[in-house]
């Protein structure tokens, strides 16, 4: 019986309150509030007593309650599909770090691409008075953007563009063109593109730049598309590109590193081709695994910390100037040369 009561007591234990701090320090409840409010009036001696009492009791300010009282929270929602995959996982990590440094509280909402799922996510964020939403993936419906605008909530979109929203994008088309020039400089005229049927804006832009530049110089481009832009998708794309030995590419540009990993493993297991002697492969993202000995992948680097910094800067500007026109920022990439592709002697990045 005693054991049961002890267990119940532990479960019912409450957080230390400001009133308890006030009693311990021998001051008023309002004095405690002022002591933890930047710029509020409280004597240095009284503040020191309060801080000592707070430290002794383990008191922490209830920021959620403060936000609700002020009708404004520090919550920032990160809406993302499959946040555990590839570059996206590193971008989520970089964003949460940047937002915490900013003084915000990031909330990751793992959702799908349907309108119902995205709108449900947005309503959840409004219910908790989130001060902004950052979309990392998916295709937000117009109602999503309209809802954010009507509620005065800043909306930042990464990796795509949306009417009425600030966005940060990579120069995907430019990277695609550079990938083609890289292969062309090695004298390769039969190229391949490994993409995905999901047809995201980044996939479309990278393929367009690659194909346009290649065909402009008389090269042909074979296409293999997996269901999704992941490892399995890379295997599926490889099956299509290397199904006929006499009609295969001599170099492949993969829409991202995960696709490249799947393609490389397929080639090693199911063909007699040697990488990079018989087949050059370039990926996109430069996630940490790209540098592993198993892949040693030549790939385009997009820095997650840089993109996160730009997203947070856009959020700061939007809150400072709510009526300013939408900002559209485009970041460049850098080709990281490794062992999965032959490096042309005449190639200049």
TrEMBL record:
Pfam families: LacI, Peripla_BP_3. Keywords: DNA-binding, Transcription, Transcription regulation. The keyword Transmembrane does not apply. This is LacI family transcriptional regulator. GO terms for molecular function: DNA-binding transcription factor activity; transcription cis-regulatory region binding. It comes from Phyllobacterium bourgognense. Residues 16-70 form the HTH lacI-type domain. The keyword Transit peptide does not apply. It comes from the Bacteria.
